[in-house]
């Protein structure tokens, strides 16, 4: 059927050429001869359904998505409804009620529906409320239905993969901390003891050779190198896994702040408020310690601050760890990939211990990292 047109009559033959016909585009689309084919290409089922058991209409595609044929149309139009998974019914009803109370006409719902062959599939309905009663309650809805089972399966696979990855990351981090603890002990005990013994033997040799003045400068230099190696082994052991962590998070943060303050040229301060001495599980204390260590390292490497303040205190029912610097700051959405890894690592550590992690940074106004650990 050709599309109808509306022609505007001419006021005068001398007013110029006739204007182009005005086409009713909506009617043109509705009457388009290829409309059924276009609708089939969408792979959607169409419906016009009563919400309270009245007469309904469903397209062939709607029936086919649920495993039914045209021979079942009479059942559907008489009010037959495929079984919705019992776990999904409350959410569907609550969503429709909220939309109705809010005067909204659009509604989108996802749920599992049983096909004719007994298999559950995920579908999505997108509809518009087309009729209401005198009290404004929805009576009918028209819209589409889409099979989203494959999408849900992919989402489920992604969630499962993420969960498995989280377990692997947790295991890897636990093993890293165990290895750090072991290596720190080895460096401190084995290497430290060997260097201490070497220093004793060296002192004994130095006393025996004291009469030989020519050897004294070389012996002094050698003694200094042994002392440097001994101090280095102690520093390495501490940075791998500070033994002071065994005395609690507050003690470990005090050592960390003093270490950064002594070797960076930036002023680091520690504020311990109420609740700072709260006893924590070893894994939780270690995670918070590593977050503070990473935040302080990032500040020194990237922000060039003059002051960094670390606070451990109770905020309401949560234990708060805050690292605040007055450095350059940055746009969190535009950090470079290398820097972003440190940010992601801190956030992941916080999530693994059930804490809430937040970052606030503005170019030229410093950076603040806060971790809130709910009390158990």
Structure description:
With 376 residues, the protein is an alpha+beta fold. The chain folds into three domains: 5-147, Beta-Lactamase, CATH 3.30.450.20; 149-241; 245-376, Histidine kinase-like ATPase, C-terminal domain (Heat Shock Protein 90, 2-Layer Sandwich), CATH 3.30.565.10. 47% of the residues lie in helices and 22% in strands. The protein is built from ten helices and twelve strands. The strands form three sheets. The protein has a five-stranded antiparallel beta sheet. The protein has a five-stranded mixed beta sheet with strand order 8-9-10-12-11. The chain has a two-stranded antiparallel ribbon with strand order 1-2. Strand 6 (120-132) and strand 7 (138-147) form a beta hairpin. Helix 9 packs antiparallel against helix 10. The longest helix is centred in the middle third of the chain and has 60 residues, at 149-208. The radius of gyration is 36 Å and the shape is elongated.
Find the count of extended strands (DSSP E, 2+ residues): 12
Helix content: 40-55%
Q: Biggest β-sheet: count, sense, barrel? A: 5 strands, antiparallel
Order of helices and strands: EEHHEEHHHEEEHHHEHEEHEE
- Just give the CATH class of the largest domain: Alpha Beta
Which structural class fits the helix and strand makeup? alpha+beta
Question: Uncertain regions: pLDDT < 50 for 5+ in a row?
Answer: 1-30
Question: Per the principal axes of the C-alpha atoms, what is the gross shape?
Answer: elongated
Strand order of the largest sheet: 4-3-7-6-5
Corresponding CATH architecture of the largest domain:
2-Layer Sandwich
Provide the CATH superfamily of the largest domain: PAS domain
Individual helix count: 10
As for the CATH topology of the largest domain, it is Beta-Lactamase
